[in-house]
Amino acid sequence: QSALTQPPSASGIPGQRVTISCSGSTSNIGSNSVTWYQQLPGTAPKLVIHNNNQRPSGVPDRFSGSKSGTSASLAISGLQSEDEADYYCTAWDDSLTGWMFGGGTKVTVL
Amino acid sequence: QVQLVESGGGVVQPGGSLRLSCAASGFTFSNYVMHWVRQAPGKGLEWVSFIRYAGSDKFYADSVKGRFTISRDDSKNTLYLQMSSLRPEDTAVYYCATETDSPFDYWGQGTLVTVSS
């Protein structure tokens, strides 16, 4: 099963806006909602965006999500040092009848 | 609050078997889909399997189909993953995760499985 496609890395200075892309196909992102997770070093993943653009309670409004066609994006505005982490997207794939994860994007705060 | 605690990881030889457990609390376990997700050392996340409430449906990633079996005991609020015919490429931290309001919304701390001779 192939993963959804994410850039391996992204970076920015504090206060900057960083955007992470997640590319898929008609059978996954094109047909189903996208969810995003943050994984700090040595910890379990944490949900930051669900249903393409919905933020769970407790997640700062600096995090936002969007989806268009077979691609999705996670944006972090006003980048902070504590945002330095790996970020993963996921979506259900109708053809594979399974969940697909992106390969992950490491965000570095310069 | 939701709490998930995995156990059962360890070192096993190739071809061997292992059973992982995930003890759940803080929510009505029997009502929700439960998942297993793994992460090989230094690698990304890989979905392994999920089971619907009452064990009505089970789905597996192609990489584990026929070798792993997911199950649940709602009377004990516990999720299981029986792993057999283990391979070195199954070496990973295995997480259990809930789907109460959205996919993988709560995660355990993970348990490490190492397949090596």
What report would you give on this structure?
The complex is a heterodimer of chains A (110) and B (117). Chain A is 0% helix and 45% strand. Chain A is built from no helices and 9 strands. Chain A has strands at 9-12, 18-23, 35-39, 46-49, 63-68, 71-76, 85-93, 98-101, 105-109. In chain A, the strands form 2 sheets. In chain A, strands 1, 3, 4, 7, 8 and 9 form a 6-stranded mixed beta sheet that branches. A 3-stranded antiparallel beta sheet of chain A has the order 2-6-5, with no helix packed on it. Chain A is globular and about 40 Å long. Chain B has strands at 3-7, 10-12, 18-25, 33-39, 45-51, 58-60, 68-73, 78-83, 92-99, 111-115. The chains are: A mainly beta (110), B mainly beta (117).
Layout of strands and helices, then pairs:
The complex is a heterodimer of chains A (110) and B (117).
Chain A: E1 9-12, E2 18-23, E3 35-39, E4 46-49, E5 63-68, E6 71-76, E7 85-93, E8 98-101, E9 105-109
Parallel strand pairs in A: 1-9
Antiparallel strand pairs in A: 2-6, 3-4, 3-7, 5-6, 7-8, 7-9
Chain B: E1 3-7, E2 10-12, E3 18-25, E4 33-39, E5 45-51, E6 58-60, E7 68-73, E8 78-83, E9 92-99, E10 111-115
Task: Looking at this protein, list some descriptive labels.
heterodimer, A: 110 residues, mainly beta, 3-stranded antiparallel sheet, 9 strands, B: 117 residues, 6-stranded mixed sheet, 0% helix
